Amino acid sequence: MPTITFINHLGHSHEVIAVAGASLMETAVDNGVTGVVADCGGACSCATCHVYIDPDWIARLPGPDASEQELLEFAIDLKDNSRLSCQIEITEEMDSMVVHTPASQY
User: Fold this and answer.
1) Quick one: which of 2, 49, 67, 95 could link to 38 by a disulfide (CB 3.0–4.6 Å)?
2) In the β-sheet with 97-100, what is the strand arrangement from edge to edge?
3) b/e for 33-42, b at 16 or more Cβ within 10 A?
4) Pairing of β 13-17 and β 3-7
5) pLDDT (tens digit, 9 = 90+) per residue, 56-88?
6) pLDDT for res 29
7) d(Cα 98, Cα 46) in Å, to the nearest integer?
């Protein structure tokens, strides 16, 4: 099972064990990670699961599809490494991935 580290805007980290096949958003919510609000429950309709993928990991993930890219335009503090965590499926290869949560979701 892959381990994912979520780091909040203050630099505090929360390491969780993820389940392959679950979304990054589900993993955060199920493990009490603050900063991943997920108001729509993973329907890709609200952008409250916005995260920043650590630069060392962004190129290892499949890119966002058109609907995710469109919705990301509504995210606060959008960056080049912004993603919607509901659209990222956990794989075993993501072991030790680092994800940052934006200050706007606290």
Assistant:
1) 49
2) 13-17, 3-7, 97-100, 50-53, 82-84
3) bebbbbebeb
4) antiparallel
5) 999 999 999 999 999 999 899 999 999 999 999
6) 97
7) 23
